Amino acid sequence: MEVYKRIIKISLPIALQQVIFTSVNFVDTLMIGALGEVAIAAVGLSNQVFFLYNLILFGLVSGGGIFFAQYWGKQEEEGLSRSVALTIISALFFSIPFFVLSFFYPNLVLNFFSPDIEVINLGAVYLKIIALSFPLFAISLVTSFMLRSIKKVHIPLIITIIELSSNIFLNYLLIFGKLGFPTLGVKGAAIATLIARLIGCISSVLIVYLRKMPGRIYFRHFREITPKFFKSYFHYAIPTMANEFAWSLGVTMYSIVYAHMGTNVIAAQRVMATIEGFATSITFSIANAASVIIGNMLGTSRYEEAYDVSKKALKLAELISIFAAIICIIITFFIVELFDVSEEVKKMVRITITISMSFLPIKLFNGMNVVGFLRAGGDTRFSFIVEGSTLWFIGVPLSAIGGLVLNLSFPVVYLLTMTEEVIKSIILYFRYKSKKWLNNVLE
């Protein structure tokens, strides 16, 4: 029972943080939806670029998170700060190409996602502005992971509330021109996002330093990054980055397929992803909590205890996923009516959400293994190989054949992509049972 309490204590604030984030995305999409399907599609495609950037960055930072959790398990604050310093440098470095492409060549970037010129031109306005927030987001993400690793999960929750409530308020002012502000539409939504991320970044850094929390960095920590530590760090971080890059690029390929199926399909996918986020945010928070707890244990070589915790976390996650899936399917039939889209788009959303939620327990099992267990133990190369191969050799080809060759409907094409999740779960089950992922990366 004690294990379940520890998991819930860490996962609940993470889940609330993600639910708030998803709620704001929902409101954001709802506000932009008032401008029509082209606006939804334009912002949706622009956010695909951010999605790609976010996941690669997530891979890098979660690679650093392996060291955060295990160093904190050993109570080595200097090692924790040194890991944070290297992660921040790396995160900012990898932000450069995304910033350059998105800020200076937004039309060229979006041209890869959609053939619709109207959508590209409107999306370029949005993408160019939010590109300025990429470095800010990198610093915020590293800080959030560090705070989770030392079990201060309530602080990222508070910062998320501040940041995203600011985003909603600024959206209201700038999209629709309220309280004397100009009516900027999609451009206003981008400016609101930029300002909100600036607020979030400054808030996270100030809290860590003013409260003198573990993990804060100074110049000496950058000097203490030895070639040996650098090599050890990237031995685990590069596969997690490659994993997220392969996965995010594959998901981006899905979006490109959907975009070529029509603007209404882009709008349906955008609305569906926003609603789906509520269920996934609650369930996948358990994977993040498990990663922290198990990482702390592996840092002190408590292997059997870590495996026992993983089994209990998996049972809890699967139970919650079933309830979350049922609730999400039910509320979708009502929520979709709030969007200013055609009946055809609403119908596609209802059907596809039902398909997605039917596979949620399988998707969560995969997420628990890749993000929660294998990554906590530094088994990052195996998870990269499994995720990359199943997505690119099964999921992407099936979506391309179904959507572009056979001209199947959006729900049917989405169903085809779930084949990848099923096969992946079988492979990960055997890896999990082998216990080869139970490693102390600091040794």
From TrEMBL:
Compartmental location: Cell membrane
Segments traversing the membrane: 20-45, 51-72, 84-105, 125-147, 154-176, 188-210, 278-299, 319-339, 351-371, 391-416
Single annotated GO MF: xenobiotic transmembrane transporter activity
Statement: the UniProt record of this protein carries the keyword Cell membrane: yes
Keywords noted in UniProt: Cell membrane, Membrane, Transmembrane, Transmembrane helix, Transport
Any single Gene Ontology cellular-component annotation: plasma membrane
InterPro entries found in the cross-reference section: MATE_fam, MdtK-like, YsiQ
Tree of life domain: Bacteria
Major site of localization recorded for this protein: membrane
Keyword Hydrolase tagged: no
UniProt-listed NCBIfam families: matE
Name under which the protein is recorded: MATE efflux family protein
Source organism (scientific name): Defluviitoga tunisiensis
